[in-house]
Amino acid sequence: MNHSIYSADRATHLKIVVVALVAGIAVAGFGITARSGSDEGLTQTARVIKAGKPVVITSSNASLVR
Description:
Layout: H1 10-37, E1 55-57, E2 63-65
Antiparallel strand pairs: 1-2
């Protein structure tokens, strides 16, 4: 029994690739179901904030509105 990946045969490499693919698909599937399944009215809406009048601040602690 050799524990090196470099000297492993083709079947061992194939098993590693299959296990990695199954694990990746499982993680992606879990992430998709967790994201789409937890919609309990927590939808965010965008609010528009309009800018006010520009203000210039000077070093004399006075502000000037243009």
